[in-house]
Amino acid sequence: MQKTLMALAVLAAVPCAAAAAEPEAAGAIATVTVNGVRQARTEPDDDPRRAPTSAYRVRGDELDEQNVTSLEELQQLVPGLNIQSTDPSDMQISIRGIGDGGGQASGDGNIGMPSGVAVYVDGVYLARPGMLSSLGDIAYAEVLSGAQGTMFGANATGGVVNISTRAPTFVPEASLTVSTGQHGYQRVRGIVSGPLSQHWAGRLNVMRSDADGAVTNQRTGNRLNGGTSNGARGQLLYQDGERFTLRLAADYNNSNSAPTSVLVATHAVNGRDTYLTHSQAAGNHVVFGPEVDLDDENRIHVVQGGGSALAEWRSAAGWRVRSVTSLRYFRSQPTMADGLSVRVYANTGTEVRDKTWSQELRVDSPSGQPFEYAFGLTYLGQHLETLAHTRYANTATPAQWLDSAAYKGLDIIRVGLLRDRMLSPFAQGTLHVGDTVDVTAGVRANVERKGGSFVRYNRVPFNSGYLEEQHTLPSGTLAVTWRPAAGWSTYAAASYGEKSGGLNISAGAARQAGLDSLYIEPEKTKSGEVGVQASLAGDRLTLKADVFLTEIAHFQTQGYNPDDQQVYLMNAGTFISRGAEASARWAPDRHWRIDAAAVFNDTYYTHYEHARCPPEVTLAPNAPPSCDMTGRRVFNAPRVTANASVRYGWTGAHGLRSFVSARYAWRSWMYGTVDDSAFTRVPGYGLAAFAVGTEGKLRQGEWSASLWLNNAFDKAYYKRLVNGEYGSVAGWLGERRTLGATLAYRY
């Protein structure tokens, strides 16, 4: 770290006689765009057929400047986005409180339910958010709010995270970026791009990252909750004038992590703390975070990758035909421990083997016409297998901890299978009524067939047989945009969508509710939004605001049966998400860029009877069999999220271009689990970050150097809280204050 800072100081002091002043980038840190407004195209992927609902776009160079390198960190720049990740196999995304209905970390990870927020990379749908390993070498990251099922498929009822990567170039370029910081942070990325022939160009991006975690194991001294990642992505681009392009991509990523929760609290119910009582009986040494005392540690090894082909044909008349083909694989191999200082179980976890493939064909009408439209067909396939073990120690400790001798030496084995096929025709278009009014409408029908099975051995044996269900999931969008004056636009949009049904491949649910409970109904979403955008002062000031209302019926979420230690899927009634958001971007001159955005989101159940009670109820005497959650807040949905950033740039002596920037992200408290347990209420927190940097010419290329400070005030916060055994609460700590430096050279 010290050597890197010395090198940074030397570089910053070198007078580069060859450096020439260049105009500064005109971007802002969290540029907000409203897609669908009829205007000059500024991005190749701007689509006038897309409904004009709320969208946030952050450019890749600004992510690099802010040292934002993961999908989870993106929520610090985009309000309303909530991402929780405890390991690569367990990433939960919601937008405005809508998306992933998870919320339990106990028992098996149930593979029968997809997320309601779709993640796309270069037009390829990722069935698991964890398939997006990093945010390196991207052109921009885009977050679309509201139901987006018409253009993005069934599993986009909560919104879309859309990533576009940089394409190969026909002008040679290369770069090497090295970052280092506190707590073992290291990140190295190399990129080379250029022509291979008259029509072919290639691009290769190689990356390695490493970081220690925020948790210390007292027994071994190991730093836990961190990990390493190695990856590469190669692309080939064929271009024949403007008529035909073919973009081929292949990627591979290999990561190792040590996800570790800490004990946050234990609770006494009716005067008795059963967690401490059981710990004393079993000999468990109770340690509260940020340290742990573990006789065994968690380890997860993930290998993933895939390939894609994007082809576009453009006719002389302006028609465009696009084909996107993809094949991906994901394999997670965990070795999980029990989180105690004594061995109850070890060498446990759910191995996941996931393969997905897709094919989309889309035809776009010529642009600039009174009616612009697109239609197409999408096919998605998935084959997913799980193999889970819970291996209990062959000692008296499991009996002392679990109050049962039945677990001694037991290896509980669960085998899961999921097959999914979906065929989706769609069409959407925009009618331009004069120069001031646009009407956008679209429909999609997702015909899905899903099958799967669950088999459990050695304890409460169960075999579901092969289960199968079929649904036709409609989506629809209608929006009107009006531009009453130059620089002003307003819109009203309504949409409907249905998320895929689920298969409850868990023995716990069938034993309680019968075989009918194995089938989970599709989640249905109705949403409406009214917004306005103004571009004032010669486009130096952009203002945006909207109000929204969304109703979710047949909410898909997870319950947990502690008797069988099983997670099971369920339809949990109906809830509403309503609120308002506003954002502003101000660039008073070429030096300053200021952004601010906030979302107020009120989410509550309008009908949720017979819900599972929180542990503060179930652990008390005479606990009811269920609780009524009607009127209660929905979990994983902070009521207020806000982001602000400011950047000042200038050109100094010898043509050096420098900047200083600051950002702040705030989110209010939320419930961490679906039962709205007071034990798992995640406190609100704010995170501040600062950066300073400079760059200049060096021979035929450019160098840059920056210092960055994340979580500048060393705020202690939890990314996630969940209920553990016997009234305990486990939490995953957020990142510590980290000072780092980045050096880069590119030509």
Automatic annotation (TrEMBL):
Topology in the lipid bilayer: Multi-pass membrane protein
Superkingdom of the organism of origin: Bacteria
Listed Gene3D superfamilies: TonB-dependent receptor, beta-barrel domain
Signal peptide: 1-20
Location of the TonB-dependent receptor plug domain: 48-160
Keyword Methyltransferase set for record: no
Keywords for this protein: Cell outer membrane, Ion transport, Iron, Iron transport, Membrane, Receptor, Signal, TonB box, Transmembrane, Transmembrane beta strand, Transport
Cell compartments where the protein resides: Cell outer membrane
Coiled-coil boundaries: none
Main location: membrane
Family: Belongs to the TonB-dependent receptor family.
PANTHER family cross-referenced by the UniProt entry: FERRICHROME IRON RECEPTOR-RELATED (PTHR32552), TONB-DEPENDENT OUTER MEMBRANE RECEPTOR (PTHR32552:SF81)
Protein's UniProt name: TonB-dependent receptor plug domain-containing protein
Organism encoding this protein: Pseudoduganella flava
